[in-house]
Queue: 2 jobs
Job 1
Amino acid sequence: MTPTHKLTFSGKKILLGITGSIAAYKAVYLLRRLVENGCDVKVVMTREALNFITPLTFGVLSKHHVYVDMFDPQYAEDIPHLNLGREADAMVIAPATANIIGKMANGVCDDLLSTILIGQVGVRRSGPIIIAPAMDYEMYESPVVQKNIKLLKELMVDFVGPEAGMLASGASGQGRMSEPDDILSFIETRLSKSEDLKGQVVLVTAGPTREAIDPVRYISNSSSGKMGYAIADSAVRRGARVILISGPTFLNPPAGVECINVVTAEEMLNAVMNKLEEATIVVMAAAVSDFRSADIPDKKIKKSESITLNLKKTQDILEAISKKRDKQFIIGFAAETGDLINNATQKLKSKSLDMIVANDVSLPGAGFDVDTNIVTIIDKKGGITEYPKTSKRIIAENIWGHYLGNR
Ligand code: CTP
């Protein structure tokens, strides 16, 4: 595993909670990377986690006692169920089972880790609580688990992953714990006090648009909005004021972001144009529909053997921005299925962009509706940088890193 990101949180105190999942073995690498980067890490394991890995491994790597028992007389004076949470700059539960998530959401504290957490969830003022879930996809999809996750998110608990892919059971689905380097990058973002976008007003578009065919049908695409939301989240954490203009998605807007919801390409165009003057940077991550139906009847079109739709081109929002721009730095995206560099460079030039993020949406793990992407960033000076497959959160960081080097 090659670290993709230089970490900048030396000296931070991290509480690493490990629960009973096969992904516990990945926590060893996570701990090693945290320690290598100068973090002081204390580990709490649940009894269930001991089935997968021993405290000795974490003790050797962290150079601290590994806490398991709630009532260990040897450590009584540390009052670990209170102090371990209080002293940590970040609490990271990786892997987090459906059980610990359920306990956190419902106030159950029947062991040391859950008791530490009950004193922190929803009341913590110093640093994040980060959960990296790991479980089989059926458990993850369970409405009960989803309800617990939703509640914890409302209580400002952060979730990283889980990712989709091959699971320990042999099945495929969403439930894999995120890779340790992605968790590290996430921890870094949450602990980052970087202000490198301070003073900037970032306008980000995200998600698909929907163009009605009749009152019940529409044309759209499978964009999830994850890329644009990750860019907005990263920008706000870097000190920018962020305006997110979003097509229909299932995502919650990141904290601190002003979100304007739109449905059609025309509504997105109007919202962007209304806010353009305020913006210093524009990122068009939305997958805007290129066509809309020319005539939308008031009544549902009745079923027949075939129908012909008369489609009209929607206005290109990026082109409209480029014509009206004043000082804004403009970043576009290119969704391609072949000849990536040539097609994206063509879009960079024809839409007068400063930078374009090109992705081949036909590759596995890239493009729409997945947590990862594979991108190449091209700037107007001709610089071309390829990035390997990684999470959309890390790509968002890379985009800002690239912007800061090119503005
Ligand atoms: N875009 C836009 N307005 C549109 C269509 C696209 O602003 N009506 C923006 C997208 O948000 C993206 C960039 O243009 O930043 C490129 O979009 P893409 O779908 O890759 O290409 P198109 O310009 O639509 O061209 P084509 O579909 O022919 O590849």
Note: The pocket of cytidine-5'-triphosphate is lined by residues 265, 284, 286, 288, 290, 314, 316-318, 332-335, 347 (CB under 6 Å).
Job 2
Amino acid sequence: MKNRKILITGGAGFIGSHTVRHFVTNYPGCKIVNLDKLTYAGNLENLTDIEGENNYSFIKGDINDKELLDQLFKNFRFDVIIHLAAESHVDRSISGPDEFVKTNILGTVSLLNTALRFWGKNFEGKLFYHISTDEVYGSLDNEGLFTESTPYDPRSPYSASKASSDHLVRAYRHTYGLPVVISNCSNNYGPNQFPEKLIPLAINNIKNNIPVPVYGKGENVRDWLFVTDHASAIDLICREGKPGETYNVGGGNEWRNIDLVKLLCRIMDKKLNRTPGESEKLISFVKDRAGHDLRYAIDFGKIKKELGWEPSVDFRKGLEITVDWYLNNNRWLDRVCSGEYRQYYNQQYSKR
Ligand code: NAD
Ligand code: DAU
């Protein structure tokens, strides 16, 4: 890719920061603009290694701020939008859905409207790429996989807000001809993930010798993908994905929560020189998540066949990298765990 002006929204978050780094590093001839509101989940410390690059700019702002979007589109004349900004945590959507509607639905519409207004009817070389989730497809029993044609059946305020945004993105293609592409990805893990999510939460609690909360009986299944593999899929879809198409991205790597947490305990015992089995004693079964989806699992056959993408990072290796990162980045972890997060954690887990 050369000379493209790319807007990445939500680039200070977990997947966003890996995506920004990927594009800034791999495409020196492109201009990458990161627009992020810096909510509790956005953190510029995720990007200190690339913040001084010539082809990178950061703008603090809300995707709902139409005047700011106008100004940015005027100044930068974007060709490509990679839209990751979202409220992303299911538990927070259960205790407070409103922000999810504002950012995930209304924010997406505001970006779509701005793109449409600035691009006019000449869509040559333009792309609106919406990053979505496998949760829009609902919940699987023990059998089967989500394909691109699985009917939508979102079941949490988070997944309903993402499903709404997917529908709107497709509607702008159908109605106005906007060149859009969507990918729906399974659970990501890796460095820089906010410790409200299962893997970094478990690592942090094991490290601090405090109970590791496992919802229900720990039988729910997720399909895990290392975050840089998601960033490489996003790059490929951006370059070679067909406008109007949807691509499912997944790890082919299903784990029951309890088995995953036990594996993390074993890895942490070794890293922290604990007696084997010591960390496992921290596992604490707590009240289940309301409406907890049983199983997600992605069929990534389409992106593999059509674009040649598949996951490259072995799960055990990816977990080791992740655990090492959290053990070596105490300052990052301590800072994000202070303030708002401490309050959230107490509220979220005291009632369980
Ligand atoms: P995250 O919560 O770590 O980061 C979200 C980022 O968006 C933060 O930097 C935040 O400051 C920013 N943001 C929030 N509201 C904003 C607004 N109104 N305007 C501008 N910026 C705003 O999320 P993540 O886990 O990195 O997920 C990124 C995207 O990928 C989301 O769209 C999510 O739905 C999707 N996704 C996530 C996963 C996963 O496993 N984490 C899997 C599939 C898809
Ligand atoms: O599938 C993709 C989705 O994966 C993304 O769209 C979401 O943004 C992302 O947050 C993630 O959603 P999950 O709800 O699957 O992730 P989370 O890490 O919150 O939970 C993973 C599993 O672990 C889930 O079954 C709930 C369980 N869990 C979670 C937490 C935080 C626990 O048992 N204990 C916990 O404390």
Note: The longest strand covers residues 127-133.
